[in-house]
Amino acid sequence: MSITVNLYYTGTGGNARKFAEEMESSGIADDVRAEEGNEKYEYFFPMGDPETVLLIDRWKDQAAIDIHHKSEMMKKIAMLRDKYKLRLRVERYIDEPKDNSK
Question: What is the structure's pLDDT at 14?
Answer without folding.
Answer: 98
